[in-house]
UniProtKB/TrEMBL annotation:
<protein>
    <submittedName>
        <fullName>SMI1/KNR4 family protein</fullName>
    </submittedName>
</protein>
<dbReference type="InterPro" id="IPR037883">
    <property type="entry name" value="Knr4/Smi1-like_sf"/>
</dbReference>
<dbReference type="InterPro" id="IPR018958">
    <property type="entry name" value="Knr4/Smi1-like_dom"/>
</dbReference>
<dbReference type="Pfam" id="PF09346">
    <property type="entry name" value="SMI1_KNR4"/>
</dbReference>
<feature type="domain" description="Knr4/Smi1-like">
    <location>
        <begin position="57"/>
        <end position="180"/>
    </location>
</feature>
Length: 197
């Protein structure tokens, strides 16, 4: 499986974090879980701390602990995403907004909160759906664990919280989703207008 698009998704999302009007590489002191991502080369701004992305510090044991709690293995492509880089935030390059922050200790709590407390379990977790990202402001994307293929990948389902019993297939798997987002983004850059996927 080619993981280049997963890395590009993260890299493009990080590159778009800073604009002339706003520097997104700051996070509230209350959100800092440790000093691993703190950017000590830049000044603090009030109660805001500068941060910088780093190579992933997430351990296999953390991933295994999450899998044990949700009772399903994560897809290999999503594990590649977890093990690429850590960050507090990503700039949106599509309508897919990954759960953040993705930092040691905190990412697992965020995932579990969304799996077990963020959405009605009877429509998602109890049906084998594992949330991993928001879709714009009206739905979420889930791994459909009922569709596991020979490579350990799941179909991606888009769920609209206003149509609770409807499940739309959104991508064949996580790697295909990342590829579609990156290709759409790159085409938008070439054409001078990015229309979110």
């Amino acid at each position: 499986m080619n993981f280049d698009y997963i890395r590009k998704f993260v890299d493009f999302s990080i590159q778009n974090m800073t604009s002339p009007e706003f520097d997104s590489f700051y996070v509230s002191k209350s959100e800092i879980v440790d000093n691993l991502l703190v950017d000590e080369s830049r000044p603090e701004k009030g109660d805001m701390i500068p941060w910088q992305p780093s190579d992933s510090l997430i351990k296999d044991s953390e991933i295994e602990a999450l899998e044990s709690e949700i009772k399903h293995p994560l897809p290999n492509s999503f594990k590649q995403y977890l093990k690429y880089k850590n960050f507090y935030e990503l700039a949106p390059i599509s309508n897919v907004w990954m759960f953040t922050p993705l930092v040691p200790k905190e990412w697992k709590r965020v995932m579990l909160e969304n799996v077990f407390n963020g959405w009605p379990k009877e429509y998602l977790f109890n049906k084998g759906m594992i949330p991993f990202a928001n879709y714009s402001d009206w739905g979420i994307l889930c791994f459909d664990t009922n569709t596991k293929d020979k490579n350990g990948e799941y179909q991606i389902i888009r769920w609209d919280h206003e149509n609770e019993e409807e499940y739309e297939i959104f991508a064949n798997d996580f790697a295909d989703l990342m590829k579609a987002i990156v290709q759409n983004y790159e085409e938008g850059i070439r054409n001078g207008e990015v229309i979110f996927y």
